[in-house]
Amino acid sequence: xxxxxxxxxxxxARGEAVLRDLAEAVRARRPGHRVHLAHLEISRPLLxxxxxxxxxxxxxxxxxLAGGYHAHVDLPEIVSRTRPDARLARxxxxxxxxxxxxxxxxxxxxxRPDDAVVLAGAGSSDPxxxxxxxxxxxxxxxxxxxxxxxAFAASGTPALPREWxxxxxxxxxxxxxxxxxxxxxxxxxALVSAPIGADPSLAALIWxxxxxxxxxxxxxxxxxxxxMTSTRPAG
Length: 235
Hints:
The protein has 235 residues and is an alpha/beta fold. The protein is 40% helix and 16% strand. The chain has helices at residues 13-29, 47-50, 69-82, 96-109, 127-144, 179-185, 200-219; strands at residues 2-7, 34-39, 58-62, 87-88, 116-121, 148-152, 168-172, 191-192. The strands form 2 sheets. Strands 2-1-3-4 form a 4-stranded parallel β-sheet, sandwiched between helices. A 4-stranded parallel β-sheet has the order 6-5-7-8, with helices on both faces. Helix 1 (13-29) links the parallel strand 1 and strand 2. The longest helix is centred in the last third of the chain and has 20 residues, at 200-219. The chain starts with a strand and ends in a 16-residue tail after the last helix.
């Protein structure tokens, strides 16, 4: 079995280092599996270059917190073109394990009992992706036992406000530092949590997405004339 972690890619060296740490954390949970990190763009290795040479069977878990163009168009196109026998898992969020990681980062940042909490996402032009982030805000609200709203740095409403009416904590709904986390840090919020990073809960979630694909594979009948597996997201 080969697990491929498909990240977006970043120009920020700190972000690349965090993703490498995450890959190590994932690898450490199941030493018997091959784990490879690749990127859709910018960073190396590129997914399109790495996939053809990897031993199979291959399962790809997108390191994407929500749906959108990269999850539903860009990534499936790369897979169908370069490794059509690979299986593609669904994006990471929304999920309660992400709420656990987000709550841990807020606590580390100094969250107070009376702070308002905003789940800060990058944003997307895809309404379904925005809905995923809002769903994650609801899960985080359950985890924290207080209201949590979602807001976005780029496309999407509501946008991050320029002024805060009360002390507010931003939960950074990002995997790694980079452009958007810097924007969060300059938003004027009282505190901004670190990105999720190589959190144990995130590593566990990645393997859960991997296992979902394997269960779906076992439930699918095999035909001698059809040995190609679907690249449609599982779950």
